[in-house]
Amino acid sequence: MSHQQPYSHxxxxxxxLGATIQPDGVNFSIYARRATGIDLLLFDHVxxxxxxxxxxLDPQHNRTHDYWHVAVAGIGPGQIYAYHAHGPWxxxxxxxxxxxxxxLDPYSRGVAMPSHYDREAAVNPGNxxxxxxxxxxxxxxxxxxxxxxxxxxxxxETIIYEMHVRGFTRHPSSGVTPERRGTYAGLxxxxxxxxxxxxxxxxxxxxxxxxPLDAPRGRVNYWGYSPMxxxxxxxxxxxxxxxxxxxxxxxxxxxxxxxxxxEVILDVVYNHTAEGSHxxxxxxxxxxxNDDYYIxxxxxxxxxxxxxxxxxxxxxxxxxxxxxxxxxxxxVREMHVDGFRFDLASILSxxxxxxxxxxxxxxxxxxxxxxxxxxxxxxEAWDAGGLYxxxxxxxxxxxxxxxxxxxxxxxxxKSDPGMTEAVASRFFASPDIYGHKGREPEQNINFITxxxxxxxxxxxxxxxxxxxxxxxxxxxxxxxxxSWNCGWEGPSADPAIERLRQRQIKNLLTIxxxxxxxxxxxxxxxxxxxxxxxxxxxxxxxxVSWFDWTAPERHGDILRFVQKLNRLRLHLDAVIEGPHHLNxxxxxxxxxxxxxxxxxxxxxxxxxxxxxxxxxxxxWAVFHMxxxxxxxxLSFEVPALPSVQHSDWxxxxxxxxxxxxxxxxxxxxxxxxxxxxRAEARSVVVLACRRVGESD
Length: 696
Known about the structure:
Blueprint (H helix, E strand, L loop, with lengths): L8 E2 L7 E5 L2 E7 L5 E7 L9 E5 L5 E2 L2 E7 L6 E7 L2 E2 L4 E2 L13 E3 L21 E3 L23 E4 L1 H5 L14 H6 L1 H7 L3 E4 L38 H17 L3 E6 L16 H9 L24 H16 L5 E4 L18 H8 L7 E4 L19 E3 L1 H11 L6 H8 L3 H4 L9 E4 L8 H4 L35 H20 L3 E5 L28 H4 L1 H15 L1 H5 L7 H6 L2 E5 L14 E7 L3 E8 L5 E4 L12 E5 L21 E4 L3 E8 L6
Parallel strand pairs: 13-14, 13-20, 14-15, 15-16, 16-17, 17-18, 18-19, 19-20
Antiparallel strand pairs: 1-7, 2-3, 3-7, 4-5, 4-8, 6-7, 8-12, 9-10, 11-12, 21-22, 22-23, 23-27, 24-26, 25-27
Helix pairs in contact: 6-7, 8-9, 12-14
């Protein structure tokens, strides 16, 4: 229903930024340094072709320095609003004001999407009022957290599961209530699966409101790396499809995950926005303060493109720094998230001209912010402009995705030469990369696959990417995948090929989940999820990307294997009857280690070597691990143990064996006879024994 009388208003306050609830209405504040005028637009409906009221802001009364502000009486939560910004259209000087374009509030806590949203209308000249996204006034205080708090789980007790909110439950086979499929609420229904899997944290692909149409024509942006605002949860992931509903459903999900002992880490994109290149749309930032929000080329009509998506946020500009910090604080304070994984984080080390900085202010601000103390901070320590900072990312509390772990372990397992020494280093927290910092082993996040690239199944099933469905003539996606199809490209009916693929998958999982550092799994790898060879499925919101819930039954053997690996990593005492709640990380980190080849104490790290072994001697348990990436079986010597002090060696893991023999709990594990173990071609073996008579 339309409001018949104009709302009264007065000058308002410059702080806080965004729309803030007051006793008698709402205060609006926005930054627009070079604007000559700002109009606040109030709407009765998101599809309205015109605003119900336009409030021009007077530079004399509604502007303080570079901030435009107004307080409007009689409105409250749920009010739809946006802005027009007046000023010069002078792209060569970095100015792109266009008063015809409806602009989102950069601090929008909620977003409303019209029924006929049109990205192109924000690109082309003219008015786009009826088809533009708009901001919504939100009161984040109205929610009962029921005592919930971020969990602050130690990194040493963390196993991360990278997943997509929509893709996790959207498949018809999910069993989720139909209207909840692909939503925050749908994910809640699958928490028992996550608990049974044994992970301790979910890392959610972007859930900030993103542009779903930022994709090739006829396709959608599925991954979400196209942010429109840094405060509002993505509305299409909510059952209600409205701003307040999305906020509450997200918080319901966080609260439910916390009750299950699972942390929530957000994949955040502070390196670019959905506005793209100079040919892109005007949604918000370029229409308000283009030369502040973005790094521009010398020809200021063009955008620096260190993100590979057309533009680069100017993260070390004062205004952008404040926005990033305010956003992170908001998600911790009001949304209770436990941490963040920063997409292309190296971009945030660039100055306002794009040059790398030794001590980038925004990264140190995040590192030292008291609100963020205890939150997990994980950097993807590279960008599309050539920066690669793995091992050299700044800060005291930042952790890093270890891209070299991914590459070296892939290469070793597929039997590339010259990888034995490298994989030994990766398994023990990459001291060659991180040793100079004297950092803890969990400095690095170890992973084999992630959303970007092949799934684990496809890594052992395809030599080449198959991305034609993306509409870019297979030019997109990484060409260098370090994959091996085991003798046949794509699905195979050959039992020998399938057995080999199964073994390679278990090899990769075992190394990833038992190595020092923080392990990360990618959604569905535990049940051999396939993308049919597509290694860049960012625009595939369909069964290419969705989790197929028939897979846990079809690949229950791999699922069981992963569940037991996770249990071994987190609760070693439950597996081999230890006296305390120790985990594998604690054992490996606190024990002496001996390296071997096929012969004890003779490791072979030559170029032609494809195998190694290690013994980790603890106070009450000993592990012996064999890694055979050779294409033939090898017999490895096994250390002798004083019978008075130790039990016999037992075979916990042998990836060459079929389920359930591939992973045995200690009491049921077969004992080893003799001092040799035959490791089959391309296999990983884990033997264990415990001290006899330990009571403490």
